[in-house]
Amino acid sequence: MSVEPLPGTDAERWIEDEGEVAPAWRVAWWRMVDAKVGIVPAPIFVLVLLVVAGFLAAGGKDFASDILMNIAVLAVGGFACAQIGKWIPGLNQIGAAAIIATFVPSYLVYAHLLPQPVIGSIIDFTKQSNFLYLFISAIIVGSILGMDRRVLISGFLKIVVPMALGSVAALIAGVGVGLAFGMELRHTLFYVVLPVLSGGVGEGAIPLSVGYGQILHQPSGPLLATILPAVMFGSLTSILLAGLLNLLGKRRPGLTGEGRLIVGEQDYQLAGKAGEASSPVQVVAAALITAVTLYLVGALAQKVLGWPGPVTMLFITVALKLGQVLSPSLEQGAFSVYRFFRTAVTYPLLFAIGVAMTPWDKLMAAFTLANVVTIVATVAAMMGTGFAVARVMGMYPVDVGIVAACRCAQGGTGDVAILSAANRMQLMPFAQIATRIGGAITVTLALIALAKWGGV
């Protein structure tokens, strides 16, 4: 017996190519293969789980931390969590897939529900492979090179105003709410509000704690433990509010450019060439090498000159785009790289971030009423100001508000989660400006203010 295949499946394409009807059992199997968890075919998903179980049953000591093992493990973990998030009614409209993919693995580690060999493998791979910055490099370079030059220039020039005004509003709102809830002014400002705006852990919380320690003549470790919960909960709040803004954009289309910042400016390259057939494999490979090389140039600048590596990479890429240094085919290849990483790598990366970089106990430490309300007020004021100022400046309020959320992100990891929750990964260049440069300015001003305060 044979049956007709489902339209658009591999079975139908096989019949068209071979000119014959497939047996029923083969069509049924192909239907199973076409069923996917995220992008992972269902039989492969099950096979990965069985392989992992086999390695663990064999003792777990030889559980590899290499790229092969982690491609499989992170794909299964990341897309499974994302799929659960997409199934949750209501929450699936505000970025639950990104939230689940980030914070559920963090809890699983905390509760010892993931096998230790798997945890160790993911942590080693994430830290040793620089997985996060490979993703950020591909997203930044691909999205910048995929933009229309005029949109790029106007976007960078205009985004400065809502970010600056939003930062001031966030400071005022956060400190005001903290004082209203009985928190001491100095603690509210230096240990809650400023850490939220500091740009993450590596670029924000750690420099703050070291600087505070030197000024106050205290060890930096306890100070970091005090600062870190505010950074993490601020990032979580930004993810949730960015998801709500995305939902607002769906219900009020006039408020959003779906990844564009400037009203009335059409991003011709994204709307036109990006929709055409994929670039040749050689061009995509060349674009990926280009993105990695630009990251390494930024990393070298950070080592030699002390400039932030991702920001240096961003500005070099902008210069290449504005100077039309790269060929149109290479730019299109870079945008193909961006689309691949956005589709295939986002949720596995978020899963890795949850396991390796998001300590659940630190996040829970921020859950006091005064802290929660103060942090929410800080983030909401930042985003609300960006939203309001955008209308005056001829920008899309939803998209500017989402970039403003990245001002309160947990570094690059937070940017990825926020933009994923809001389905705005193409805004990564502007998010990096908000997070990195805004965070660096915040840290500098915070240390100056504490020193002026007298360190008492």
Describe the structure.
The protein is mainly α and 456 residues long. 75% of the residues lie in helices and 1% in strands. It is built from 21 helices and two strands. The N terminus is likely disordered. The N and C termini lie far apart (85 Å). The longest helix has 32 residues. The chain has one domain.
Secondary structure: elements and pairs:
Elements: H1 10-18, H2 24-34, E1 36-37, E2 40-41, H3 42-57, H4 67-87, H5 96-110, H6 116-129, H7 131-145, H8 149-180, H9 185-196, H10 201-216, H11 220-251, H12 268-271, H13 281-305, H14 309-322, H15 328-344, H16 346-357, H17 360-364, H18 369-392, H19 397-405, H20 411-421, H21 428-453
Antiparallel strand pairs: 1-2
- Global geometry: globular
Number of domains: 1
Helix content: over 70%
List the helices and strands in order.
HHEEHHHHHHHHHHHHHHHHHHH
Largest sheet data: 2 strands, antiparallel
With helices defined by DSSP (H or I, 4 residues minimum), what is the helix count? 21
How far apart lie the N and C ends? 85 Å
Q: Runs with pLDDT <50, length 5+?
A: 1-8, 269-277
Total number of strands: 2
What percent of residues are in strands? under 5%
Taking all Cα atoms into account, the compactness measure Rg is 23 Å
Strand order of the largest sheet: 1-2
Q: Overall mean pLDDT score?
A: 85
Structural class: mainly alpha
Brief overview, please?
With 456 residues, the protein is mostly helical. Helix content is 75%, strand content 1%. The chain is built from 21 helices and 2 strands.
Please supply descriptive tags for the structure shown above.
456 residues; 21 helices; 75% helix; disordered N terminus
